[in-house]
Write a structure and sequence with these properties.
single chain, mainly beta, 12-stranded antiparallel barrel, about 160 residues, globular, 12 strands
Length: about 160
């Protein structure tokens, strides 16, 4: 079975499928690896499918800057994202005490995921046109990308929420 570590050095793209809808695909050339659909009354939920597994990203409260990741048909979150107000970074807290840092640039046109050893694991570059498109580059091999492939969508979803607000 393929994992995200198989795509190190490749140029992946997250692009908007339709102009006014918030449906995005993660692609390598013509191969679709996963997708994210932002849904909900206030667009505070996202349905993610990657490598035939489905997850949900849910913002439990408008007032807090947290994000919960849940598996399909499960009640308890398997991971959370938390950032303090007016900060350009936050942390993805994973099971077994593992953690990753999500770092946004000042203008948010670039962002990245950093492992506990302060090494960049994934970089994102936003490209603007009529349809939204983000270039994704996997920089470093990580066991966390094998265990939790949905990690690739968290910074993208957070950027979309910042852009919406």
């Amino acid at each position: 079975m393929k994992t995200l570590n198989n795509y190190i050095g490749e140029k992946l793209f997250i692009h908007q499928k339709e102009f006014l809808k918030r449906n995005y695909e993660l692609k390598l050339n013509d191969e679709v690896l996963g997708f994210i659909n932002i849904v909900g009354i206030f667009k505070n939920k996202a349905k993610v499918k990657i490598f035939d597994k489905e997850y949900f990203f849910i913002q439990p409260s408008f007032w807090r800057s947290t994000l919960e990741v849940k598996e399909l048909n499960k009640e308890l979150p398997i991971a959370t994202y938390f950032s303090k107000a007016f900060r350009n970074f936050g942390f993805i807290n994973l099971p077994l005490g593992e953690s990753l840092k999500v770092n946004f640039s000042l203008l948010s046109s670039q962002y990245e995921i950093i492992n506990p050893f302060n090494e960049v694991v994934i970089k994102y570059y936003n490209k603007f046109s009529f349809k939204f498109r983000t270039e994704v580059s996997i920089e470093k091999d990580s066991i966390l990308l094998e265990k939790y492939p949905w990690i690739i969508f968290i910074p993208f979803y957070l950027y979309q929420e910042k852009r919406k607000n």
